[in-house]
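Predict both folds.
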Amino acid sequence: MLRNLGRGFVPSPSRSVWADAGFRAVPEETMNLADRYVRVRAQLIELCAKTDDPLARMATVVAVLHHKLPHFFWTGFYLSKNDGLIVGPYQGPLACAVLPGPAGVCWEAMRRGEPVRVPDVHAFAGHVACDARSKSEIVVPVRDATGRIVGVLDVDSDKPDAFSEVDAQGLEAIVALIHAAQTPDLPDALRRLLARQPLAVLATQGQGQPHASLLGFAASEDLSKLVFATPRATRKFENLTADGRAALLVDDRANRPDDIMVATAATAIGRVEEIGHAEREAATQVYLRRHPHLRSFLDSPDTAVLRMTVERYFVVRRFQEVTEVRPPIRAT
């Protein structure tokens, strides 16, 4: 069973949130811009999920960026073709149809493979002037699913020095959506998350204090049971013996700036009990398929093999979208 719990109240990202997400410290006056990029990207994730066609996604990205970012004068893509760059979806004044290279900011970004910011386009050697009103520019490479650079997102402003590092990082996270795989259905996403991540954080409660532990786990076929192991002489085992209620958190963060919007996290809520002798061997086999190197650990008489019977999962995607999923969850 799935139950969408909505977005609830989610405050604007604070300075510490952006630091945790990998963004460098920025002055207070730029925080509104950083906040806007978070919100724009959240909207674009939803819109890009409707199609996997790169051109359609580019057109959508351009439309949203051009109307949401007031310092954007010209916004568009240039795509690599026949040793040149041809204009793709764009909004703003009439664009140069072809950039033959090798001069210009777009080609410089292609060569470097990273964003290029130009505070004054007239001071940039080889600048290609498509509209005399452009005064500053930022160009971000676009990569396909294999990592190959296939074009650029080019943004001009009619104001000098209009673009900052916040723009560079925000636009990098947005162009990554162009060739990203579509978000799978939630039950399938949950199954993949539990299958791919070998470690989880277990939260228990005892003696009036919370306790968290990192441990290996394995899930049953229908995701209704989670198996893990621990030495008996541990705080978590003591807590679980006194109160079997617990939570287990699994996530797929990659420690990148866009984790805050693209990572998936699932919290399993349920009751934990030690597995008796009659069922221990079957549970051990489930666990060892994920953690074969821990055979000697499980064979120790001091190790308890435990099983959480999951009552529900709370799955968080896109930073603030929370959905409740109740097992059993059958494979499709």
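Second protein follows, with its predicted structure tokens after the sequence.
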Amino acid sequence: MEHTYSNPQASPAATPCNIFFRIPKTASFTLRNLVSREYRKVPCLDTDFPLLSPESWQHFLKCVELLPEEKRAQYRSIVGHMKFGVHEILPGSARYVTFLRDPVKRFASYYYMLRRIGLVIPTHRFEPTRPDWNMPGHESFPRELDNCQTRALANADLNLPFGQCTEKHLEQAKANIEKHFVFVGLTERFDLSLMLIRRLCGWRWHFYVPKNATPQFTTEQRLCPDVLEAIGRLNRFDRELYSFAAQRFEETVRQQGLSLKIEHAGFISCNLLHKKFHRIYRPLKRAIRGDSKVRKRTPSTKTPTKTADSPSAE
């Protein structure tokens, strides 16, 4: 989805295009909302994929390549689920930003999301002793379960078979981070990551409420410890990539010094007030408008709860 605006302060010739590389369930939906707010007055391109597939990606590339070069040069931001390499079809300079998350927590959140929306049946059970792990038929499962973050940053084929992610993919992912990424944030440290994006990319202050958070499930509905342990072993490249990104993250934090810590503390306090105001204001606004979606909530022990303080459940 394309959003085009004018901004007299923007200098397309001097400003690189910031490519916000969304990886599923890394707080990427919250990031997308923040990107749309930051770049609301400049040309911005949203890949807008509900599901990234080889067909949808090729269609997107063709559409962008057909645009006149001067129009492609105007984009100051591209955001969405994508394959690495979109910078190659842009005439000007570009830099990437992404978030990584603990691979076991990331996949568990993805799995619970698919169960919530009905793409995984309630009685499904993984079987790590089987070659296919008894995966559901959803086409994204092989890459989501098998080192998804390494695959994405290494620009691996979307149809790379399950179990075929290798050490070469890990090394390529690291090399791409070193060469093309101005910043790699950590979902578990989302607020501090936002403060670093603000400094490295020149963002304004943006407060937020977590979006697309996965609800909590009962003990019976959760993945069992043995399956979670097997997922951790399978995702050894993602774990190493996460550790690599975390080391770079800590070094960036160290370089920013005490002023970043003060700014971070101030942001946490202000954003907490923002969240409280949002919880009060949103239902009040709907009630004033007579929104038909506003209904009295009946007590129920089955109502799922969402994490309130960070977008890490996305």
